Amino acid sequence: MLGYPCMNHTLRERDPPLRCNRDMRKATFAERGLPYASELALQNVEDLHEILAWNADHGIRFYRCTSTLVPWNSQFDLTDLPDYEAIRAVAERCGELIEREGMRLTFHPDYWCRLASDSADTRANSVEAVEYHADWLDLIGLDRSPYYGINVHIGATYGDKAATAERFRDAVDTLSPGARARLTVENDDKESLWSVPELVDALSGTGVPVLFDYHHHAFTDRGLTYREAFDLATETWGDVRPATHYSESARLHGADARPQAHAEFPGRVPTWLRERSDVMIEADGKEQAVFGVRDNY
DNA sequence: TCATGTCAAGCGCTG
DNA sequence: CAGCGCTTGACATGA
């Protein structure tokens, strides 16, 4: 399966727009509080259902939802929301659609989610973030499996990789069963950070799978080919079909961009990657980029 | 309605 | 050493 993250450009441009990333600023949350958070969450979940339905109609069965599905969820429990029952009902319909259509849904908490941080506050916020993503997956009614994953980066070294790996494993141990069972960890896009072999080593014994990002591997290859790194990561998934990320550098497409920047429309996903994993196409072209890649076969 | 500046949260790195 | 970029856009204000 091929998929795309977050926004669907086609549906975003409708009037009214369909999107599941309605958010608000701190001052607005302070002013309007739970009722407005509830209203936004309900609209977001309703639109998530429409996006999933559109995806199914267009043969796209893999989707990553944004982390603003329930805005400000770090500040309350889902059950505190005035519209909780309505939200739950729509979430269940999303789950039924996903089951019926054989779809795959994942999440990717924001950049500040740093489970191995050397700051206890940052670690606590990060654990909390993984937990509320797990609450959403429970609400939708999806299995507690990395198949419906919550994907994070370690994303830093704090000057000591061994100590960072240990803090990461400790954080994993503090997660609830539902959060822990869904966690996946992706290789970073900076030479100094976490490569596939380093993650495999750091996570050995935890059961947490390594999510292989093809483009990022170029920055942390450690002498391994793409296929070697993918094979290494795939072993960590056990019986679960791996999820992977694919993108191409914008530079390959002539842009004067930093090497890490994504091309708007990547060309062709390697056949071996498509055959052996579900591939999230990370590109500004979003759903159109999936169509473009599909047309190249 | 639209343009513009700003926005909760962490990091490493660049200019 | 400030600001950028990530997995990236949207909110809020004022004309």
Description:
InterPro entries: UvdE, Xyl_isomerase-like_sf. One of its GO terms (biological process) is DNA repair. Keywords: DNA damage, DNA excision, DNA repair, Endonuclease, Hydrolase, Nuclease. GO terms for molecular function: endonuclease activity; hydrolase activity. This is UV DNA damage repair endonuclease UvsE. The chain is of the alpha/beta class. Helix content is 44%, strand content 11%. The protein is built from 11 helices and 8 strands. The chain has helices at 9-12, 26-57, 84-101, 120-140, 161-174, 177-180, 196-203, 214-217, 226-235, 271-276, 286-295; strands at 2-5, 62-65, 104-107, 150-153, 183-186, 210-213, 243-246, 278-281. Strands 3-2-1-8-7-6-5-4 form an 8-stranded parallel β-sheet. Strand 7, helix 10 and strand 8 form a beta-alpha-beta unit. The protein is globular and about 55 Å long. The two termini are 13 Å apart. The mean pLDDT is 93. It binds a DNA duplex (15 and 15 nucleotides) through residues 5-7, 19, 21-29, 64, 66-68, 72, 74, 108-114, 117, 119, 121-122, 125-126, 129, 151, 153, 155-158, 186, 189-190, 192-193, 245, 258, 260-261, 282, 284.
